[in-house]
Structure formats: C-alpha cells, structure tokens
C-alpha cells in the first residue's frame, strides 16, 4: 500500500505539516462555516459573530494563498516536471486541495471589499455562502482522494506506509 503526496505531506514532519497544511486552514474555514450558518439563520450582519466570520475569512483566504504558492512552487511544479506523480488519484488529491484557494481567496477578497463591493449585504451573503460551500466540497473531495491508495488506479507504488 502506498499514499498520495497529499497524505505524505501531512504525515511528514509531525506535527508541523499537519498543523500548517491542515489544522490551521481547516479550523479557520470551519469557523467561517459555523458563523456563516448563524448569519444565514439570523440575518444579523453586525455584532461579534459577523466580526469573527469576517476576520476568519480574511485570515484563511490570505493564509491559504501563501500555502498555495508554497506548495505549487515546492511540490506541484517539481512533481510535474520530474514525472513524480503517482497516478491520477495523486494528482486529483493535490489538485482539489490546491483548488481550495479559489473560494478561500474569494472570501478574503469579498471581505476586504475588492470584489462585489457594490452588492447588497444579502447578495454578499449569497456569494459568501456559495464560496464557503465550494470550499467544503473541494476540501472533502481532496481528502477522499488523498486517503486512497494511488495503486488502486494503476499509480506507482511509492512511500510505503509504516507497519504494512
């Protein structure tokens, strides 16, 4: 059994890679999700919950943009140039993970007023909620592909898991 580069990244350099590439972005994104649900239910566009929602969205968007650039330069491009991918499952896991930058950066840009600045609070909420939903889908698809053995689809067997 082998693992995707996604899982290998999270498993190496414990606990730092797990914290940097999974825990921090997921905790911030889940904070956005939970506060988003409250805002959707109450339509309260002010107060502490909205403030937490706004700042978690800004932080996760810009934080993940840095993660995206770092992993693109240090992992995705070298793997592509060197033919190091372990098949389409591996590419899918990393690709879906990295594509999370689109909705997360979109949330940050919405919060700082770079996009949709002329929209009503309700329209912004719709855009915001759509971006949150898109991130959840992309992140969960990445996790599912990331946990698969790339050899299931003919990918190369590399980096055996310890104890197997």
Automatic annotation (TrEMBL):
Q: Which UniProt keywords apply?
A: Membrane, Transmembrane, Transmembrane helix
Which InterPro entries does the entry mention?
DUF6803 (IPR046547)
Keyword Membrane assigned to the entry: answer is: yes
One Pfam family in the UniProt entry: DUF6803
The superkingdom listed in its UniProt entry is Bacteria
- Establish whether keyword Transmembrane helix is in the entry: yes
From the record, give the transmembrane residue ranges: 20-40, 52-73, 93-113, 125-148
The name of this protein is Permease
